[in-house]
């Protein structure tokens, strides 16, 4: 078995610095290393890993790097691994990867291959948590910010609390409803990152997307709502409506959304679909 590390050197707050030595000292599997230089490189390098018949492609970065790698690996025989070096690392933490980089590298020695679901929004792939509304608004601001890290993300949230709910039309399983919401998350996995779980019970292998609708509520409740997310209890909040479905069509005036944390503008209506058992992952203890 051979692992190829695809390292984003500018992801997050720089936890990947010195990683070559950590890999050399802690990994017991044959490997090689490639670095990205610009956006889109991780997809190209993952496709090269397929062509080179590598067994595991490990994304070293955040959820954006994971997303780029997954785009090439979905439907292939190569498994995707993750070393969390981004600002959020939601997918890695959902899978059970250690936050400490050295410990995460050691985990790779005992990981196993499993097959999980992937998703699309108007044919654009995502694997973790995506969404429309306030979180997409924050993702755009974060992408344009030169500083990285969770604290920067949190500061943006607190600064933008004047954001007003938007109207959406939803169609799923023969039903059509109208909602007014701060955001609608499309959760394949459970969290945005840093253990902020928007859908704590979400599974990457149940063949369903958790559509988490954060309804309009009084501003004074925001600190309590954020506390519920931080404690993994968002699903118990009365401000949330959860719909599990294989597909949903969303009509919105503003087609700004985020895919695994990366802002994207799509034409409305937006069709979000699950694609069961389409991505092989290299994860600890078979966690899903």
Distance between the termini: 22 Å
Query: Stretches where pLDDT falls below 50 for ≥5 residues?
Result: none
Number of strands: 17
So, CATH architecture of the largest domain? Sandwich
Strand content: 35-45%
Mean pLDDT: 93
Structural class: alpha+beta
Features:
288 residues, alpha+beta, Tumour Suppressor Smad4, 11-stranded antiparallel beta sheet, 4-stranded parallel beta sheet, 17 strands, globular
Secondary structure layout plus pairing:
Elements: E1 2-7, H1 19-26, E2 30-35, H2 41-51, E3 56-61, H3 63-73, E4 79-84, H4 90-95, H5 101-107, E5 112-121, E6 124-126, E7 129-133, H6 134-143, H7 150-159, E8 166-172, E9 175-187, E10 191-193, E11 196-197, E12 209-215, H8 222-230, E13 240-245, E14 247-251, E15 256-259, E16 262-265, E17 270-283
Parallel strand pairs: 1-2, 1-3, 3-4
Antiparallel strand pairs: 5-6, 5-17, 7-9, 7-15, 8-9, 8-14, 9-12, 10-11, 12-13, 14-17, 15-16
Helix pairs in contact: 1-5, 2-3, 6-7
Summarize the structure.
This protein is of the alpha+beta class. The chain folds into 2 domains: 2-118 and 279-286, Probable inorganic polyphosphate/atp-NAD kinase, domain 1 (Rossmann fold, 3-Layer(aba) Sandwich), CATH 3.40.50.10330; 124-275, Tumour Suppressor Smad4 (Sandwich), CATH 2.60.200. It has 8 helices and 17 strands.
Describe it for me?
With 288 residues, the chain is of the alpha+beta class. The chain folds into 2 domains: 125 residues, Probable inorganic polyphosphate/atp-NAD kinase, domain 1 (Rossmann fold, 3-Layer(aba) Sandwich), CATH 3.40.50; 152 residues, Sandwich (Tumour Suppressor Smad4), CATH 2.60.200. It is 25% helix and 37% strand. It is built from 8 helices and 17 strands. The strands form 3 sheets. Strands 5, 6, 7, 8, 9, 12, 13, 14, 15, 16 and 17 form an 11-stranded antiparallel β-sheet that branches. A 4-stranded parallel β-sheet has the order 2-1-3-4, with helices on both faces. Helix 1 runs parallel beside helix 5, helix 2 packs parallel to helix 3 and helix 6 packs across helix 7.
């Amino acid at each position: 078995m051979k692992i190829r590390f695809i390292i984003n050197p500018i992801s997050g707050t720089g936890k990947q610095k010195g990683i070559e030595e950590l890999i050399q000292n802690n990994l017991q599997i044959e490997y090689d290393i490639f670095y990205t230089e610009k956006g889109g490189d991780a997809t190209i390098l993952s496709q090269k890993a397929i062509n080179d018949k590598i067994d595991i492609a490990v994304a070293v970065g955040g959820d954006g790097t994971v997303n780029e790698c997954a785009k090439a690996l979905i439907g292939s025989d190569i498994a995707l691994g993750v070393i969390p070096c981004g600002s959020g690392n939601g997918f890695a933490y959902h899978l059970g990867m250690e936050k400490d980089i050295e410990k995460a590298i050691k985990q790779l020695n005992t990981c196993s291959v499993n097959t999980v679901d992937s998703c699309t929004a108007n044919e654009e792939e995502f694997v973790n948590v995506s969404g429309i509304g306030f979180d997409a608004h924050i993702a755009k601001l974060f992408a344009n910010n030169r500083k990285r890290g969770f604290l920067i993300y949190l500061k943006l949230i607190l600064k933008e609390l004047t954001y007003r709910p938007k109207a959406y039309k939803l169609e799923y399983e023969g039903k059509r409803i109208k909602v007014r919401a701060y955001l609608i998350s499309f959760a394949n996995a459970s969290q945005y990152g840093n253990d902020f779980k928007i859908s704590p019970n979400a599974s990457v292998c149940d063949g369903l997307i958790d559509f988490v609708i954060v309804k309009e509520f009084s501003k004074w409740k925001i600190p309590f709502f954020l506390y519920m997310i931080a404690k993994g209890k968002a699903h118990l909040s009365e401000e949330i409506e959860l719909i599990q479905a294989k597909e949903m069509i969303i009509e919105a005036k503003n087609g700004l959304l985020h895919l695994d944390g990366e802002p994207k503008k799509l034409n409305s209506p937006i069709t979000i679909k699950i694609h069961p058992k389409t991505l092989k992952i290299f994860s600890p203890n078979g966690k899903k």
